[in-house]
Amino acid sequence: MQVKAASIAIAIFAAGQTSALPKTEEWWKSKPGGHPTQHYFQNAELGPRPQFLVTDMDEGWLKDRLSACSDMVARPSKFSIGHRGGACLQFPEETRESVEAGTRMGAGILECDVAFTSDRELVCRHDQCDLHTTTNIVVTELNAKCTTPFSPALNGTEATAKCCTSDITLAEFKSLCGKMDGYNASATTPEDFLHGTPAWRTDLYATCGTVLSHKEFLELVDSHGRDFTTELKQPRVPMPFDGNYTQELYAQQVIEEYRAAGIDPSRAWLQSFSFADVAYWLQADPAFGKQAVLLDESGDTPASFSAAVANLSFYKDAGVQVVAPPLQYLVALGEGDEYVPSDYATTAKALGLKILTWSLERSGPLAQAAANDDYYYSTIANGTFKDGDMYRLVDVLARQVGVMGIFSDWSATVTYYANCFGFF
Ligand SMILES: *[C@@H]1O[C@H](CO)[C@@H](O)[C@H](O)[C@H]1NC(C)=O
Ligand SMILES: *[C@@H]1O[C@H](CO)[C@@H](O)[C@H](O)[C@H]1NC(C)=O
Ligand SMILES: *[C@@H]1O[C@H](CO)[C@@H](O)[C@H](O)[C@H]1NC(C)=O
Ligand SMILES: *[C@@H]1O[C@H](CO)[C@@H](O)[C@H](O)[C@H]1NC(C)=O
Ligand SMILES: *[C@@H]1O[C@H](CO)[C@@H](O)[C@H](O)[C@H]1NC(C)=O
Fold first, then answer.
1. Atom of ligand 5 minimally distant from the CA of 378
2. Which numbered atom of ligand 4 lies nearest the CA of 315?
3. CA distance 316 to 351
4. What CA–CA distance (Å, rounded) separates 232 from 294?
5. What is the 3-state secondary structure (H, E, C) of 85-131?
6. How far is CA 367 from CA 371, 381, 421, in A?
7. What percent of the chain clears pLDDT 70, i.e. is strictly above it?
8. Which residue from 267, 288, 266, 268 is spatially nearest to 277, judged by alpha carbons?
9. From ligand 2's centre to the CA of 127, what distance in Å?
10. Which of 99, 117, 275, 276 is the most exposed, having the fewest neighbouring CB atoms within 10 Å of its CB?
């Protein structure tokens, strides 16, 4: 009864207000069009996912603390690094749309992985030869230029294609549509080959992702006032490419593009898996080199893991200041399924190395992490049961390992934690 009475009162009140009438276009034109600094997205929009993850957590102090932040106004944080643009859980990776969504979700640093085209322009792609799984190239006439054009599945043999940025020019690259990474190995037609998005991602925004040159990426991120991380991808063709394009020219070109865009080196985090690239940047241009990031995937097996830990002092002595291993290198299982810092983490910390880590939100539902032998949870899979465990991982990385930032395929997840705990 009381509920009904209240709704009637509201209905009468609303009917009595002239403001309830629809507004004309003229009325809207007379109103100012938003906050003057809106361009810089000074607030972050975090959406429903962080709360979904928090609700899924085990009861306890961390859940209470994160729940208490559910109504906060969030701002961008450099602790939150937009992997492949920052929204590739749902948006085509390395596209304008992924960068825009990652920016909105408060990533303070946005990533572009670079590869080169046949005319030696740098473009954002996670692999020099992934155009057949991340764009629509096989259904365009550019398919004919691919290292291996599309060939259909036949008699139990899988469909194949291999298309590289170095097969085409920048102008040709710009004519492609970015899509969700994946392919259909049973495809008998090029159209069918495009399908293969895991069910826990989505094709909702894969209508025609806008592919980016590195120059366009710099301009876009700069226009939003955020910072940058460019990864120099390993060439998939012998270097020097085309006679005289050496690895050093390729590494130098990244710096030239930052300089031409007038970006201060303190806003640029260059990365490579190759120690030679990082060593080159350190020597050739210390302003950029001093915060160059050495990506490390040298410890994927228990035996190579100890070697990777041992090698950290070599990197430190060589002048590397930032190392970036995958998530699972930094954690181990302690008592009662607790996540604790690993040997890698404690060694890197003791050496005074700064640490970044990758990549959260690439694994799909965590209830299957152990069954799927998920790469990013491999050292803690036996203590990982559900999506809510993701914030246990973020918390140990942030407050115990002391990482400087976390790459994520869905920036809001890290931005939420960063705001709640004051990591900026
Ligand atoms: C497919 O396999 C069958 C049985 O092995 C064979 O008879 C046929 O010739 C094959 N077709 C082609 C196109 O390779
Ligand atoms: C994969 O390709 C096969 C053959 O072209 C087709 O029958 C199937 O529907 C495709 N799968 C998807 C998910 O598109
Ligand atoms: C590299 O070779 C191209 C021709 O393939 C030539 O136009 C260019 O000047 C050369 N660049 C350098 C730095 O030698
Ligand atoms: C240490 O790193 C350097 C540079 O990447 C490499 O050449 C060397 O093989 C590594 N050593 C071990 C033991 O992994
Ligand atoms: C997880 O548990 C299984 C079964 O007890 C064991 O074989 C495996 O080594 C454990 N994995 C890790 C990383 O400790």
1. 13
2. 2
3. 7
4. 11
5. HCCCCCCCCCEHHHHHHHHHCCEEEEEEEEEECCCCCEEECCCCCCH
6. 8, 10, 26
7. 93
8. 288
9. 25
10. 276
Give the span between the Cα atoms of 93 and 70, in whole angstroms.
28
- Gap between the terminal Cα atoms of the chain: 50
Amino acid of residue 100: E
Exposure pattern of 135-169 as b/e (b: 16+ CB <10 Å)? bbbbbbebbebbeebbebbeeeeebbbbbbbbbbb
Listed residue (380, 381, 379, 360) closest to 369, CA to CA: 381
Looking at residue 58, what DSSP letter applies?
Answer: P
| Strand-pair partners of 323 | 294, 355
Q: Name 112's bridge partners.
A: 230
d(CA 357, CA 348): 12
Question: Cα 243 from chain centroid?
Answer: 34
CB 49 within 8 A of CB 413: yes
Q: What tens digit of pLDDT does each residue of 299-350 get?
A: 999 999 999 999 999 999 999 999 999 999 999 999 999 999 999 999 999 9
Residue 93 alpha carbon to ligand 3 centre in Å: 32
Q: Which residue has the least CA distance to atom 13 on ligand 4? A: 307
Ligand in nearest proximity to the CA of 273: 4
With contact defined as beta carbons under 8 Å apart, do 313 and 284 qualify?
no
Number of residues written out for the chain: 424
User: What is the distance between the alpha carbons of residues 215 and 209, in angstroms, rounded to a whole number?
Assistant: 17
Ligand 3 atom, smallest distance to 242 CA:
5
Q: What is the pLDDT of residues 69-84, one digit of tens each?
A: 999 999 999 999 999 9
Whether residue 301 has its Cβ less than 6 Å from ligand 5: no
For residue 156, the ligand closest to its alpha carbon is: 1
For position 3, what pLDDT does the model report? 44
Q: Which of 311, 313, 320 to mutate for ligand 4's pocket (most ligand atoms within 8 Å of CB)? A: 311
Query: Looking at residue 28, what is its pLDDT?
Result: 75
| Digit-coded pLDDT (tens) for 219-243 | 999 999 999 999 999 999 999 999 9
Q: What mean pLDDT, rounded, does the chain reach?
A: 94
* Domains of the chain, each with CATH number or no CATH: 49-126+206-421 (3.20.20.190)
Hey, what are 306's tokens? 């100890």
In this prediction the pTM is 0.92
User: Which pLDDT score is estimated for 29?
Assistant: 76
pLDDT at position 12, please? 41
Is any ligand 4 atom within 6 A of the Cβ of residue 140? no
Does residue 243 have its Cβ closer than 6 Å to ligand 3?
yes
